[in-house]
Structure formats: C-alpha cells, structure tokens
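for the recovery benchmark. tokens below, seq after
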C-alpha cells in the first residue's frame, strides 16, 4: 500500500519546522511505500499537494495536524481552517482514504471526527504504534487500538493503544521530508530525548499527549542521531523538543557528556526548568553546545506559581537568573502569562520589575514572551474555567477560549495594548 504523509499547512506566518512526528511514524510502516510532504515548505502548498498526489497516486493520505492554532500569539492564527481546506484539496483529486493524526488532532479527536466527515480514520496519540496496524486493516479498523473510524453513520473508537516503546524504536526517518532542506532555518530540526511529563502545570496538555511517566531514549542513541545530523546532512543547529530538558537532571547530564565525549560541535536550544538548575549543569550545557535557554516560569509570585501548580518558587526563578546572568554564552528566553490564576497588581508589578532587572543585567541576550492562557481540554485549567464560568460544558474548545484572572482582567488588556504599540 502507498501512503502520502502530509504535514498540515500553518498559514505561512511562521518558519517551517521539520515534521518530526511523521519522521517517527515512517520506520514502523514496514513494507508500505511512503512519501512525505510538508505543506509549509511551498509558496503554493495546495497546488503542490495536488501535483504530488497525482504523481504518487497514494492509497491513503495521512495528514498530521500538529497544532489547532497559534496558542501563544496575540494575533491568533487558526490552523484548523487550513487543515479543513487541505482535506478539500485532497478529496478534489483522489479517492484515497484520509487518515488524520498529530497532537492537535488527538486533543480534539472526537470533536474533529464529528466536524469533518471527510476524515475516514483518526490516529489517537502516538502514531508509530498504530499506523502500520491500521494500514494492514483498513477494512477492519476495529482490530487496531487507538483508531477512530466510521460505522453506520457514526464515529467509533477502538480504545487507547499502548504507548510507544522509545527504547526499542528506530530513529526518525530524516529522508521522508529531506532534513537538509531545513538546514538554514534556525531551530527547525528537533531531537527527542524522552516522552512524558511528571509535572502538574494546570494549563499543560503534555501529560495527556505523552503520559505522566517518563519514557527515555538512551543517551548514546540520542547522540548517534545528533552525530548523523551533522555528519550526513551538514546540520550544525537543532533543538531538543522535550517539554523540559533538564528533568530528570541525570539524563540531561548524560546526553551533554556524550556530546562532549564525541567532540560534536553543533549548537542547540532547549526548554529548562529553574528547579534544580545548577551552575555546574548550565556550564556543562554551554560546553556541549547550548546557545539558548528557554524558561517558562509563567508567573512570578509564589501565589501565582502555586495556583499554576508549578514545581518552582520565586526564589528558584531568582536563583536561576543569577546563574544564567553570570554564566553567559547563550540567549535566555522567559515566558510569562499575562494574567494567570492568583494574579494581583502586586505580583504583576513584581514580574515587570524582574523583567526590567533582567534586561538591565543581560541586555539583548534576554527575551520575553507574554502570553494569554489558551483553555485546552484534558487540563486542570479547563476545570478552573468551568468553575469560574469562563466556559461551559457545551464549549468544545476547538475554537480558542482564553483564561484571564477575573479580578485583574484589566492587566491583560493593558499588556495587549502595550504589545500592540510595540508592534507585537
């Protein structure tokens, strides 16, 4: 069977990102012939997609919807509309079965299946453990766990599948969408070290998508992949895609030491937690090629951090800042929510003073993002929003809904105005 694996179009406002999810799916497809297509790499993606379909003549088209919308932007781009347009373009040139998947799809799987009858099958959560079985059983999808399908005019679900065994999984196929094409796009290529997140941040969807328990890849295999990116494809820059790179710390340290042992000169970025961030570890990361540290404290007061159920305190943020300021050698990016649960005027002013202090201390190598809180299903924030009346049980959340602390909603309005005046 021939399958075209498509990365859904995101509208062209952002640089393309290498489709790592599709690359992970490809090695498990066995004898099925596969071709890749990243719509974000073309000026006329829909016309190019139709040309590829006519040329390849697939039996099935798998479309990965990575995100529903640009969650952390003041001007929201609703990617789902491009996804719907893509389904129409596919249907206009082929009778091939359409299989939807990706993290964006999985978050709203039942809703999307009801909304989009053009989708024949849906792959729920991790596709590498599902896709081959589905392709072998398109006529009897009920045999395969983790699949949405249609029967007698209704949407059926076979139940969740077992999580993928990362320790035994083959490395991603970097040829499906040639990784060399992303060489000149900063941080476009991702490397995965583990899945799962044991943290409990109220807004976060990662525990749902990847599970609460960590599943690790061996440091040696991770660095094999990094070495291949440089030696075979000439890439000297990548990003670790883990939700948090340095938890647990020993695994991250082992990866850095293996990079150093092999003398790899690539530069990279990653998301870090301030919890347990030590001077020794940061220096190890810098020696191993880290050039951007991304932090997401989200709030600044202990009251806000507790309301968000973060694993850090205000003292952790200040301690990590002091280390990063003194160490140097890389960019530092902070992400804060504009008006999270527990926000007060005092906590907002404290956050503003911290940002001014960090700018004075680190200059242009520090950056800040101030984001609204997208209410997503399968999160505790959804339950908070229901309790506070910001959403109802009838809201399916596919169209963006946002949380703002009702007592200080004017803070978010003020920040939106300030960001608009700065052209952001």
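predicted aa per position
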């Amino acid at each position: 069977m021939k399958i075209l694996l498509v990365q859904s179009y995101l509208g062209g406002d952002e640089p393309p990102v290498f489709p790592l999810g599709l690359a992970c799916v490809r090695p498990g497809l066995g004898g099925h012939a596969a071709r890749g297509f990243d719509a974000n790499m073309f000026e006329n993606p829909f016309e190019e997609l139709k040309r590829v379909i006519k040329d390849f003549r697939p039996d099935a088209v798998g479309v990965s919807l990575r995100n529903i919308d640009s969650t952390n932007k003041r001007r929201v781009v609703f990617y789902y509309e491009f996804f719907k347009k893509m389904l129409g373009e596919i249907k206009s040139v082929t009778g091939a079965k359409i299989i939807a998947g990706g993290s964006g799809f999985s978050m709203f799987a039942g809703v999307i299946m009801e909304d989009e009858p053009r989708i024949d099958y849906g792959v729920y959560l991790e596709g590498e453990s599902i896709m081959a079985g589905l392709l072998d059983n398109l006529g009897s999808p009920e045999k395969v766990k983790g699949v949405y399908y249609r029967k007698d005019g209704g949407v059926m679900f076979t139940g969740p599948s077992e999580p993928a065994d990362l320790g035994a999984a083959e490395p991603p196929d970097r040829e499906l969408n040639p990784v060399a094409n992303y060489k000149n796009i900063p941080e476009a290529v991702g490397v995965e070290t583990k899945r799962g997140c044991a943290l409990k941040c109220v807004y976060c969807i990662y525990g749902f998508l990847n599970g609460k328990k960590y599943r690790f890849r061996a440091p040696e295999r991770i660095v094999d992949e990094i070495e291949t990116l440089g030696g075979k494809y000439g890439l000297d820059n990548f990003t670790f895609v883990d939700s948090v790179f340095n938890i647990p710390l020993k695994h991250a340290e082992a990866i850095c030491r293996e990079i150093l042992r092999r003398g790899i000169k690539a530069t990279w970025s990653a998301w870090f937690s301030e919890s347990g961030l030590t001077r020794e570890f940061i220096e190890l990361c810098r020696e191993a090629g880290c050039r951007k540290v991304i932090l997401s404290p989200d709030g600044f007061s202990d009251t806000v951090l507790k309301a968000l159920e973060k694993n850090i305190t205000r003292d952790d943020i200040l301690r990590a800042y002091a280390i990063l300021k003194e160490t140097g050698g890389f960019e530092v990016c902070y992400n804060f929510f504009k008006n999270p649960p527990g926000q007060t005027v005092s906590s907002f002013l404290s956050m503003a003073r911290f940002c001014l202090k960090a700018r004075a201390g680190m200059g242009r190598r520090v950056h800040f993002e101030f984001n609204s809180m997208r209410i997503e299903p399968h999160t505790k924030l959804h339950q908070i929003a229901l309790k506070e009346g910001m959403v109802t049980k009838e809201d399916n959340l596919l169209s963006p809904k946002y949380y703002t602390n009702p007592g200080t909603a004017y803070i978010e309005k003020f920040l939106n105005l300030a960001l608009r005046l700065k052209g952001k």
